[in-house]
Every structure is written in structure tokens, then in C-alpha cells.
What we know:
The chain is about 0% helix and about 25% strand. The chain has strands at about 5-10, 35, 45, 75-80, 90, 100-105. The strands form two sheets. It has a four-stranded antiparallel β-sheet, with no helix packed on it. The mean pLDDT is about 80.
Amino acid sequence: MKSGESGYHLAPDTTDSGGADTPSADSHPESVTTEDVMPHNIRFNVDDGGAAGKTVASGYTGILTFLPDGSCSEDKSIRLELDSATPIEIRVRALTGSITVRYVQEASR
């Protein structure tokens, strides 16, 4: 994804798609890659704790890798924002790969 923008890129974690792993043809005979934009200009924002993700294909930043056992590379909080709408926060737990979604109520000013 591109933080602050609507574009995203989903791909296997392989060197030809910007990842680190190089699977054999037998273990992953067919891979699917998707590159698109969110509808209505919904923007991604990631709480990365100051850690920058690796830049992958087409200038996107890799933020999360799901592993074969269902776990994830790290805990991650992804915020979806749209002007004049309540932001939505998606949290992914590394240990289990579980996902929770909640509306973010902004602090009163």
C-alpha cells in the first residue's frame, strides 16, 4: 500500500514481487497478484511505530506478510480514512493472524 493514498498491491512474498522468499514452482505453482485502488478515494494510513516497511513493486510499501500457519509477520494497525467520515481501524495480531475492526472516535477539540 501507499500510506496516505488509495492504492494497494497484494502479492506472494517472493523476490519477483518484491518479497524475500523464492518459492519453487512445485510449492507454489500459481500465484495471483492484485494491484488496485480503494473505492471513493479511501486512504490507507499505517501505525508502523516509526519502523519503515520495505519498498516493493511499483513503489508500494510492504506492511504485512501472512505466513503459511496463519500468523503474521508482526502486529499491525491499518487505518482507512475518507474525508468527512469516521475512520476505521483494522488491527492484525501477529501470533494468530486474527483481525479486528473498529470505528475510531476522534478526541473532542
